[in-house]
Amino acid sequence: MIDVTCAIIRNEDEDILVVQRGEKTSHPLKWEFPGGKIHPEETGEDCIIREIREELEMGIVICKQLEPVVHDYGNKKIRLIPFVCDTLDELPVLVEHVDFKWLSPQNLMKVDFSEADVFVAEQYLSGLFVVLKDENPPATDEGGSSVDDKELQEMINSTLGLKAVDWIATSAIENPVIFRKLLEYSYSPDRKLAFRASWTLTKVCDKFPELIYPHLSDLIVSLPKFDNESVKRSFLRILSLSDLNNISSSNHGILAEFCFSMLRSGFSAIAVKAYSMDILYKLSIIYPELANELATSIRIMYEDASAGIKSKGKTILKKIS
User: Fold this and answer.
1) pLDDT for 24-51, tens place per residue?
2) Where in the chain are all domains bearing CATH 3.90.79.10?
C-alpha cells in the first residue's frame, strides 16, 4: 500500500483549491486535491508542505488531519491522508497539473474527482458544521494587561483553523499585549511560530490596519534580513494593503529596492512577487519616476513568469500606462 497525502487548501473566502491532472497521466483530466507520496523518513505533515511548495509554490498552514481514505485502484492501493490547510496565496503555479479552480463548499462535488478524492471531499463537507471545542482564549490577568506567553505560543503553534485565527486576531485588537506578542513572535527564529504569528497578524491588519502603522518602518527595515519566505509574504501583504504615506521617504527607498529585488529574483514565491508589484505601484503614485522602472521590471519578468503573475503584471501595467 502506498501512503499519499493531499491538501484541502482554503483561501480567506473559505473556497477550496482543486487541481486537474494532465491528459497523459493516470486518471487523465480528473480533478483532485494536490499532494503526493510520502518519502521515507518523512512525516505526513512534512510531506504535504513539501508537495504543495514543489507543485504549486504556495505556503500553507496545516489546520487539522482528516481520517485516511484507503482505496484500491486495481493496479495500486493507496492510503490517502488528507490535511485541511489554509493559505494567503491565491495564485498557484501549476508545475504538474493543467488547471486549477477555487470552489465554494457548495460547488465542491460538481467537479469530476478521482475516486479516492471523492471520499475525501465528502468527509470534509460532512464536518464543516462541527463546532470546534478547543478554541479557548489565552489566559490574561484581571486587567487584561498581560498574557500567558507559553499558552499563547502553543495556541498559535497548534493546528489553527480560520475560526481560531480570527479569534486570536480579534483578541489582539482588544488587547494590545497580544498584538505586541504577535509582532514579537513574527521575528522569532522558530520558523513555524514566526509564520503563524505573522499570518495571524495579517488578519488583525485586515480589520484594523491603523494598528500596524506605528510598526511599518520596523517591518520594512527587517524585510531584507529575513530568510523566512512565509514571514516575508505576510509582511508584504500587510504593506500592500497599507497607506504608504504613513512611512518616511527613506523607508520608501528601502521598500522599493527590496520589492524590485523580489521581482528580479528567480527564487521568490509567486505571492511575494504579486505583493511586491502592488507595493511598487503604490509607490509609483507617490514617486511617478518609478513607473517606468516598474513597467520594465514587469516586462522582463514576463519571460519566465507563471500565468498568475502575467495576469497580475498586466493589471499593474494598465494602471500605470
Assistant:
1) 888 899 999 999 999 998 999 999 999 9
2) 2-126
